[in-house]
Every structure is written in structure tokens, then in C-alpha cells.
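Work Package 4 report. The design task specified in the project plan requires that, given a folded chain encoded as C-alpha cells, an amino acid be chosen for each position. We show below one input record used in the internal validation round.
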């Protein structure tokens, strides 16, 4: 009987300077999996089984699981195309912690929808799939945004265009950059991290945000590594959100004093990331964060590079 296994990598939203507009897919250099997997099997009726290190953090009722919502949404879209659908049995391997700032919900959504699309012989385009993924992500976070689902699905570093015919744009990257990602083990909800932000932003800050994003993208295309790194500062969210993250300032200080080009909060946190162009520095920063930033046994620290492939299925 036909079966598909889909994998969708972790992602970091915002990348410090691009609030809701930039996202990057992450891949540990040691080959370990940092992302969720969904198996799709032919079956007589729909069912969902949940496994993995963080399975116990999800609702016990399968009907409340985002993967079940993905399945029903996908089937409805197929029916609207006039296609008949045979049922499938799904298995979610929940490797990413919930509320981690690593695109946990996005990873489950992308793995589920990409796996279903391949299982049912790819009836939907990349654009169609991104629209679906954004809609399902919105059901989790309360608003449609693509800064996790887009890089998770297509890979690399992406800019959210959100135009009628173009959801995201793939950006050039620096192949020699290492991205150290450290999850502290505590949970920060996206809603709580958004509620702590001010409702209005001063004009000066708005101009700085726009300038940094424009300069960063220009520097990527001109391969100006130093200039790109110099503007990787979060002027919108980090000043407020860092209060939710114990040892954030100390972690930034250590990273910047030990070869980091940039340091920031991954998505809504509590995961932090450091960028460096030296593997030796990356390993040093990774170990310090593991020893000092991690708060409990569920935390972890990885040296990553960007996952240029995104979601895969076989």
C-alpha cells in the first residue's frame, strides 16, 4: 500500500531585523533532525497517531491536532476540484517543542500538507500550498503570516512578499555562515510575545526598521557580509521580548565577544540564535549557551546552517 514520509525543518522567524517579513530554515550540521515528520498511509478511514519527544505536549484529542485540521482542509480543497479522495492514516513525529520560537506549528503544518500533496499525486502548486499553509498557521497564532511556513516549505532565507501571485521571495545567502540555535526549555506563546509589544511604533524606529531591511537585502545581493551582519538588529520586538527570556543579555554579550556577527531572538522566543562565519566560534558559543542559557532538561543547542532544501517527502 502507498505510503509517504514528509519532513519539514525548523525555522527562525524575523531573523532579528525583519519582523514578520523574514524567515530562515535551519539544519544542524551534525545531521540530527530539527523538524517534524508526518507519515501518510493509505487506509480505510482517517486516523492520527502522534509520537516523538514532544507528543505529550499536544492535545490528546486527535480532532484538535493541527495535522487533523490540515488533512480536512486539504481534502476539502481536493473535493472543490471535483476529485474523489481515498482516506489516509497519518502519523505525526513531534520533534520540535511547542512555543519554542522554532516554527513548531509551521513544521507540523508543512510536513502534513506537503506529505498529503505528494501522497495524492501533487494536485496543488507551490503557491497553492503556501496559501493553505498560511491559513492553517493563522488558526494557531490568530493571524495569517508566512515567516515560518515559507522558509520551512521552500528552504533557505525568504522575504514575505504576500502579493497575489507571489507569497515569498528566496534571497541570496552566505554559505559560510553558521547559525547557532539554542532552545532554553521554557515556553513562550506567540500570543503572549505579541501582547508585550507596543501598539504604536515611533516614526524614528519605523524608519530605522525600513532602512535596516533594505540595506540587508541589498547587502545579500552584493555579497557584502559585513554590511549585512551590521544591520541584523531588532529595533521592534527584542527590546520588549527579551524580558521574557532569562540570561538573554548575558548570552548576547558572550556571543558577540566570541565571534558572533549577530545575535537575536528566534521568532517569539525563547530560542535565541547567533550568526558567525567561524565553525570554531560557533562551537564555542553553542557550548556556552548549552551550559548557561538552557533552563531545563528539554532544552538543546545546535550549530546549524541554512536548510536550502526545505520540506522533503519520499
Amino acid at each position: 500500500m502507498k505510503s509517504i514520509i514528509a519532513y519539514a525543518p525548523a525555522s527562525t522567524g524575523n531573523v532579528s531585523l525583519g519582523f514578520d517579513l523574514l524567515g530562515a530554515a535551519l539544519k544542524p550540521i551534525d545531521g540530527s533532525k530539527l523538524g517534524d515528520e508526518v507519515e501518510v498511509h493509505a487506509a480505510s478511514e482517517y486516523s492520527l497517531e502522534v509520537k516523538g519527544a514532544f507528543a505529550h505536549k499536544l492535545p490528546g484529542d486527535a480532532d484538535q491536532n493541527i495535522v487533523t485540521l490540515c488533512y480536512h482542509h486539504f481534502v476539502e480543497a481536493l473535493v472543490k476540484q471535483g476529485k474523489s479522495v481515498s482516506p489516509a492514516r497519518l502519523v505525526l513525529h513531534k520533534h520540535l517543542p511547542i512555543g519554542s520560537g522554532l516554527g513548531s506549528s509551521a513544521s507540523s503544518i508543512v510536513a502534513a500538507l506537503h506529505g498529503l500533496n505528494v501522497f495524492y499525486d501533487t494536485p496543488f502548486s507551490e503557491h497553492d500550498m503556501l496559501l493553505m499553509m498560511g491559513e492553517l498557521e493563522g488558526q494557531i497564532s490568530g493571524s495569517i503570516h508566512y515567516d515560518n511556513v515559507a522558509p520551512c516549505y521552500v528552504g533557505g532565507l525568504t522575504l514575505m512578499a504576500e502579493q497575489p501571485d507571489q507569497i515569498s521571495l528566496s534571497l541570496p545567502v552566505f554559505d559560510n555562515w553558521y547559525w547557532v540555535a539554542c532552545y532554553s526549555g521554557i515556553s513562550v506563546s506567540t500570543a503572549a510575545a505579541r501582547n508585550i509589544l507596543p501598539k504604536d511604533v515611533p516614526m524614528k524606529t519605523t524608519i530605522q526598521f525600513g532602512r535596516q531591511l533594505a540595506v540587508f537585502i541589498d547587502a545579500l545581493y552584493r555579497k557584502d557580509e559585513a554590511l549585512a551582519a551590521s544591520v541584523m538588529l531588532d529595533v521592534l520586538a527584542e527590546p520588549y521580548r527579551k524580558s521574557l527570556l532569562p540570561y538573554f543579555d548575558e548570552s548576547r554579550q558572550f556571543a558577540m565577544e566570541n565571534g558572533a556577527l549577530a545575535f537575536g531572538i528566534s521568532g517569539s522566543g525563547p530560542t535565541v540564535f547567533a550568526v558567525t562565519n567561524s565553525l570554531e566560534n560557533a562551537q564555542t558559543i553553542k557550548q556556552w549557551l548549552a551550559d548557561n542559557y538552557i533552563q531545563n532538561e528539554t532544552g538543546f543547542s545546535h550549530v546549524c546552517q541554512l536548510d536550502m532544501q526545505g520540506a522533503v517527502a519520499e
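The chain has two domains: 3-171, 178-303. Validation will be extended to a larger panel in the next phase.
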